[in-house]
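User: Modeling request: complex.
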Amino acid sequence: MRAIILAVALLLTAAPAQAALFDDLGGEAGIGHIVSLAAARFLGDPRIAATFGNTNMDRFQRMLTAQLCQVAGGPCLYKGHDMVAAHHGLDINQAQFNALVEDLQDAMTASGVAYHAQNRLLALLAPMQRDVVTR
Amino acid sequence: MADPFESGRLLATSGVTQLEGVGGGGLVPWALITGYGTQDAVGATVHGTTVWLPDFTLASTGAAVGLFDRAEISYAHEWFDSRQAGGRLGIGNGYTFNLDILGLKLRVLGDAVYDQDRWLPQIAVGTELKQSSDGAVLRAVGARSDKGADFYAAMTKIFLAESLLVDLTVRLTKANQFGLLGFGGDRSDSYHPEVEGSVAYLVSQSIAMGAELRTKPDNLRFAHEGAAFDVFGAYFLTKHASATLAYVGLGDIARQGAQNGVYLSIQVGF
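Assistant: Request completed. Predicted assembly structure:
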């Protein structure tokens, strides 16, 4: 019984934190704006531009928006590939992963997302490093 | 072929350079590898640090190399100017103690940045090999040796959602005042486990503020030695330059009373 009460209490405290992140990112529209700014930075970044050579950027932006929306606790469902499949064959190294993070940070800053809200999103994305960085 | 000098890690994840020339905070070595090289690259830093205390001035400079985000090799030299206290202690005004420190660190487990879904911190083990140039004076104050080796294990975790960095380091040491007053003493000549910790709040992408505590052995009869602490702010201008300003207390040194002062450190590297 005590475990159930604890679990419920944890859910009650965790859910608003997630929803708050979705709001702090500006909701679905805000996330879409961040993604469009980020996508432009990815393509303009000589460290990672080549990895988008075969990417349909319209689809990429829709997928990334849905993924970030879902991760941030928003009412979205990401239906794209898992991170291993999505990055298969791209041979992405650690510096490229971090370059993308820096571009995303820039895009969030340009969208007016507070630094500590940026970190809350990045904390949820960071473990994806294990699936994305393959060399 | 990736650039072997890419500076590919994220800003501030290098940490800064602590007093003994090792990648860490101000007083405490961290499990992070110095510089900004990823597992595909090398990084390097040079530092200059000065600590202005009521009765002493401590300066440190050195260089450190980070290899593939796995290993770190560092060298530092410390000058400890006794100013007027030297006269009171009978070694002459301005007598300056000299200490060389070779540091080796190996990262063994975990990732402080990416393991945000795990409790496991980044863990590194290391040693600091220290050689003093003041054998005669050190023996006179009761120290047993002018050289010594410290061994430590450091655990560092970034709680990114909370914008917090936490480090806990445990050190086996015989050093008196970091080794500036030699190793071992007439009160105790055995290794002591000492505890060191840092907490830093990431205020912005380029600013961290925090506090540290470091316990030390108390080996010498002639003077009691206590813990050291600092409260710091670090500014990461770019991946190539950072500055750390701290209020530091090194405790009582050589019966001259509490030594609380200002710590300033500049670091450049890649």
